[in-house]
Amino acid sequence: QVLLVQSVSEVKKPGASVRVSCKASGYIFSSYAINWVRQAPGQGLEWMGWINPNTGNPTYAQGFTGRFGFSLDTSVSTAYLQISSLKSEDTAVYYCARGRSPMVRGVIDLHFDHWGQGTLVPVSP
Amino acid sequence: EVELTQSPGTLSLSPGERATLSCRASQSVSSSSLAWYQQKPGQAPRLLIYATSSGATGIPDRFTGSGSGTDFTLTISRLEPEDSAVYYCQQYGSSVTFGGGTKVEIK
Q1: I want to staple A46 with a disulfide (CB 3.0 to 4.6 A). Which of A28, A38, B76, B82 is the partner?
Q2: A40-81 pLDDT, tens per residue?
Q3: Which residues of A lie inside 8 Å of B (Cβ-Cβ)?
């Protein structure tokens, strides 16, 4: 079955960096874009953007440029989210998510039927 | 950016009752680009409905979606205790945005 398994939670200090991983299995990794979604404590869902699993080209949503980076290691079917210069307001659960349908000629599905379990990144002095 | 406003904020109903959740968009959303998710505490969201009214795999048929333009509705026809959760609408026709959520409590 399709699984997205994320790295475990890790506490970070302001100014540090963090890398969250999302290991995919049960499907052809190159066929589906990986999206990232943020959820601050007690808050709703924010889409951060997606990465093309064929080209590695990332697309960032408004508000997620600069300190945020998406990358891939296709050899191990894993996507990564890196956040640099962490701030307290980055404290959140970060989810990876896969679209319901495969990419077709670069057009992706932006509703998500498979999600990772989430990675909590607390940013605290 | 398309803003989605969900109402009510909280819905408290008894098992067997019908729940009607609203999602209003700041501009027209294509019917092929509106989804609903269920999220329980400590869990990832779960896709319920996509393209306004299509049920995702494995979703009970008591969950139905409807609407068009700027007004969309998720209906849970016969509430069960396990339906206690927060429900989010999402539009994916113009970038991606989520509504603020409706919490459904089962009395």
Answers
A1: A38
A2: 999 999 999 999 999 999 999 999 999 999 999 999 999 999
A3: 35, 37, 44-47, 61-62, 95, 97, 100, 110-113, 115-118
